[in-house]
Design a protein that fits this description.
With 316 residues, the chain is of the alpha/beta class. Helix content is 23%, strand content 27%. The longest helix is centred in the middle third of the chain and has 24 residues.
């Protein structure tokens, strides 16, 4: 088949490679270059960087509608969309024969929106998946070509789950493209109660020990893709709070007591520090004090000269 590919971030690159493996990609459409790094130099989206090694041309319109006539001239059978980052209007969606097939990292209609992986983890759900659906004029509301699910372990974080969903999604896309090329096009209406997955609010990133162990753990693993979760801690010899990013945690069986909030219960070099919370107990495994490199939580506690029986206190 003759395809158009719309995508921008690193996660979209394997999907572009899958499209190029067995089909003709007439053009790659991606976001414009953006400032990045300390020097704010313009940098290309990862999909743009990948296109030349696949021998593919790239378009970078500020607004996809600007390229509508050019897209129609490609006379593509369909388009594949993976995290493109722009809303596609009806005039653009009509530029191919079969339509635009989007790869979404949830089991639609569950978690429609920009951050399905984060909300899957924030809610502590044990199942996730990918849905390949035909884009219409709603937000992730179009009919489904195919979907697939996987289990989510309690310790999995957003980068790990995203990587596994990419692998699952690439396999599903390969099957979908074979089906469509052989005339097996499905447009099954979505069914079930929809839920929304907007980008997580910055307020979710600030952690404190009034959260339950499960809530804090779910925030830490969900927000490793941003905004980074952190604690504002009282620290000896400092007037201002010490901001500490929390990179890895693990749940511990057993309940907590209200007077144990922030209490250091155990310290183990290979596991970190076990703290009590409003409800439950949690291992802090890896942290990153502001302006420093990531360290084990046990080493961080040693730097504070605190031992089991001491108490970590958060500052609003």
């Amino acid at each position: 088949m003759r395809l158009l590919f719309f995508g921008s971030p690193e996660e979209a690159v394997p999907f572009l490679e899958e499209c190029a493996r067995g089909h003709e990609v007439a053009a790659v459409i991606t976001r414009p270059d953006r400032p990045s790094g300390r020097g704010l130099r313009l940098g290309p989206p990862p999909v743009k960087s990948a296109a030349p090694r696949l021998g593919l041309g790239v378009l970078q319109p500020l607004d996809p509608q600007e390229a509508d006539q050019e897209l129609k001239a490609f006379a593509a059978d369909m388009a594949v969309v993976v995290a493109y980052g722009r809303i596609l209007k009806p005039s653009t969606l009509s530029s191919t024969k079969h339509g635009f097939l989007n790869v979404h990292f949830s089991l639609l209609p569950h978690w429609r929106g920009a951050a399905p992986v984060a909300w899957t983890l924030l809610r502590g759900e044990g199942r996730a998946g990918v849905t390949l659906f035909w884009i219409d004029d709603g937000l992730d509301t179009g009919p489904i070509q195919r979907k697939a699910a996987l289990d989510v372990p309690q310790e999995e974080d957003a980068p790990s789950l995203t990587a596994r969903l990419v692998g699952l999604g690439v396999a599903e896309l390969g099957s979908a493209l074979r089906d469509i090329s052989e005339g097996r096009i499905r447009r099954e209406p979505q069914s079930g109660e929809p839920t929304r997955a907007p980008k997580p609010d910055m307020s979710l990133a600030e952690l404190d020990f009034d959260l339950s162990a499960a809530e804090l753990h779910n925030r830490v693993r969900a927000l490793q893709g941003g905004p980074k979760p952190y604690l504002r801690l009282k620290a000896p010899g400092r007037e201002s709070p010490l901001r500490v990013a929390v990179l890895k945690t693990a749940l511990e069986e057993g309940g907590g007591l209200p007077d144990q909030k922030g209490l250091v219960l155990r310290v183990e070099g290979g596991r970190g520090i076990l703290i009590g919370l409003r409800s439950g107990r949690l291992w802090l495994r890896q942290v990153q004090p502001e302006g420093k490199k990531p360290v084990s939580a046990a080493d961080f506690l040693n730097g504070l000269r605190m031992k089991p029986g001491g108490r970590l206190e958060t500052v609003p």
